[in-house]
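The data are passed on as follows:
___
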Amino acid sequence: MSISRILSRPYPPESLSSMSGMTSPDTFIPADDLLHWIYAAYVDVSGPLYNLEHAHLASARIGLLWTNSDNVKAGKRVLGQAEMPGKGGGNKWSKARSEQQLREWFGLVPDFLITIDAAHASECSDREFCFLIEHELRHCAQAVDEFGELKFSRDTGEPVFALKVHDIEIFINDVARYGAEAAGEEVVDLIIAAAQVYSVSDTQIAQACGRKIVMAKKQVSR
């Protein structure tokens, strides 16, 4: 595969991203081209979006899927999702059935499975797309021990993987790389609110908490 093809932004199949695809049954299609692009862009040290934070993914087996299935959580549209197969609940048969499906898709059970909303991926800007992909990669983390040190397998020396939950650190790193606009309206609103003067003053807080109000003395110039 040529470098020029690897570094060309992958798009989902038209059958999933078109209006006709949105009315078809929920469908999931392996995104092999997206997987190759991710390693070339983010993991390879010569990649244009290389980030040392993802170095452990060089040893990871990642499965990528496009989907036209709507996923809404707490009233918000889910654009991407990272998970670790086999780490959730379910009985033995349901786990075996899921693993069979993964092997049929990827030839193995991956360490991480990332699913991307095809409709969003087909219409968003390049910056928004790169933001979304790296946001999901940040969830595909390397485990740490009780001292905060990165964990490696004693048997193989390979990284031990873990799923990182949403936290403010992920969004801070995402915004630092791509800007607030790529993160969406909610993050932009948060930044705007943080830059404004507080609507609740120190005096009001002191009054509510029973503290004495200490007024700063004005310096008189001589």
Summary: Confidence is low (pLDDT under 50) at residues 1-6. The first strand starts at residue 28 and ends at 30.
